[in-house]
């Protein structure tokens, strides 16, 4: 019989414990700093920066002055404004002594201060202030190192902001590609029912309103697959009002994948592309029927969505150019959707397109059920 003895694990010596404390404080400060340099983020992060440095006081400021202060010596805040502005202009660390930090409190622990610049993407954005009874060469180096780390977090915040702006611009571009031809035809189809079938005209008008409201909504980078497919259904109802029985649609969706988070407007453009390029040529013929199959399957840790048509197909080289973002390709957002999928989940999750002239087209979308940073 094996016998196990439990022993308390140890972080080792004082050096190991100090390292752990430093890493812990850095991890606590990081989330707020990744939001950028604001009053709120400075207030939430500065106490952890002070703990990281082990000093009586610390502050964070932008180019105009202090945003937050933690610890002793708060009465010195106003005396540091000019120095912070100077550091933000010159980019050089400055040490402030008793001549600037005038104080009548004999027991004040903040007699000197180190002001280190914060730089994000080669732009001076503010300063880290470290208050202490006196400064040493080691403390100056420590302040500069922490300021450099804070600058790195602020650069990451700027990258996150740039990424969000890019994603918003891509969605705006995708909205702009929603076919005016489709809108015109939808309204024309609705108008054709106004006299012959007023109830259906009213229902189609409501579907059109819901479709446009979803497509042009202003919030949320991600949505659920259920919401995305609901928008697809509205789009197809409007197209079927135009084509009638000449457009046949089959949807097969596993209930388990409906809550999966997907990039906003990642399926509807693929369906519109299939109708425009794959089916219109055959469905416009009197005896022609266009068939569209949409499936969403549960595949272990992934959700697989397929949009397949039996239309005219396409030259694979033209598809490659569309996926590469060639603006001359008349494709509704194919490259846009591919880029956003790769940005969200990595290069392993780009679009897969199977097509050939006369052989129809199948577009395959794979998304993980759970991915860091992806939520509705």
Automatic annotation (TrEMBL):
<feature type="domain" description="Histidine kinase/HSP90-like ATPase">
    <location>
        <begin position="266"/>
        <end position="369"/>
    </location>
</feature>
<feature type="domain" description="Signal transduction histidine kinase internal region">
    <location>
        <begin position="169"/>
        <end position="247"/>
    </location>
</feature>
<dbReference type="InterPro" id="IPR010559">
    <property type="entry name" value="Sig_transdc_His_kin_internal"/>
</dbReference>
<protein>
    <submittedName>
        <fullName>Two-component system, LytT family, sensor kinase</fullName>
    </submittedName>
</protein>
<dbReference type="InterPro" id="IPR050640">
    <property type="entry name" value="Bact_2-comp_sensor_kinase"/>
</dbReference>
<dbReference type="Pfam" id="PF02518">
    <property type="entry name" value="HATPase_c"/>
</dbReference>
<dbReference type="InterPro" id="IPR003594">
    <property type="entry name" value="HATPase_dom"/>
</dbReference>
<keyword id="KW-0418">Kinase</keyword>
<dbReference type="GO" id="GO:0000155">
    <property type="term" value="F:phosphorelay sensor kinase activity"/>
</dbReference>
<dbReference type="Pfam" id="PF06580">
    <property type="entry name" value="His_kinase"/>
</dbReference>
<dbReference type="GO" id="GO:0016020">
    <property type="term" value="C:membrane"/>
</dbReference>
<keyword id="KW-0808">Transferase</keyword>
<dbReference type="InterPro" id="IPR036890">
    <property type="entry name" value="HATPase_C_sf"/>
</dbReference>
């Amino acid at each position: 019989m094996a016998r196990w003895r439990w022993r308390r694990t140890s972080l080792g010596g004082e050096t190991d414990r100090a390292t752990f404390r430093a890493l812990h404080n850095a991890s606590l400060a990081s989330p707020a700093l990744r939001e950028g340099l604001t009053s709120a983020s400075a207030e939430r992060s500065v106490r952890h920066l002070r703990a990281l440095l082990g000093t009586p006081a610390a502050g964070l400021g932008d180019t105009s002055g202090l945003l937050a202060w933690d610890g002793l010596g708060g009465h010195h805040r106003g005396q540091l404004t000019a120095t912070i502005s100077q550091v933000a202009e010159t980019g050089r660390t400055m040490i402030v002594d008793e001549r600037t930090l005038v104080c009548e409190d004999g027991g004040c622990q903040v007699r000197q201060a180190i002001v280190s610049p914060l730089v994000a993407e080669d732009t001076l954005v503010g300063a880290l202030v470290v208050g202490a009874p006196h400064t040493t060469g080691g403390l100056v180096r420590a302040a500069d190192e922490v300021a450099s780390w804070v600058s790195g977090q602020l650069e990451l915040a700027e990258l996150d902001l740039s990424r969000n702006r890019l994603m918003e611009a891509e969605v705006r571009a995708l909205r702009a590609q929603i076919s005016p031809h489709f809108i015109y035809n939808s309204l024309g189809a609705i108008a054709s029912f106004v006299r012959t079938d007023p109830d259906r005209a009213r229902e189609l008008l409501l579907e059109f309103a819901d479709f446009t409201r979803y497509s042009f909504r202003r919030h949320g980078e991600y949505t659920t697959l259920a919401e995305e497919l609901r928008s697809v259904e509205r789009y197809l109802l409007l197209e079927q009002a135009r084509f009638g029985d000449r457009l046949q649609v089959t949807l097969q969706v596993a209930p388990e994948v409906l809550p999966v988070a997907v990039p906003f407007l990642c399926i509807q453009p693929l369906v519109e592309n299939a109708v425009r390029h794959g089916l219109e040529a055959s469905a416009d013929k009197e005896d022609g029927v266009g068939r569209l199959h949409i499936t969403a399957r549960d595949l272990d840790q992934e959700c697989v969505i397929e949009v397949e048509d039996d239309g005219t197909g396409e030259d694979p080289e033209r598809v490659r150019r569309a996926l590469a973002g060639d603006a001359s390709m008349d494709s509704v957002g194919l490259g846009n959707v591919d880029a956003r999928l790769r940005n969200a989940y990595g290069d392993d999750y780009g679009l897969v397109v199977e097509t050939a002239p006369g052989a129809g087209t199948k577009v395959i979308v794979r998304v993980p059920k759970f991915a860091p940073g992806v939520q509705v």
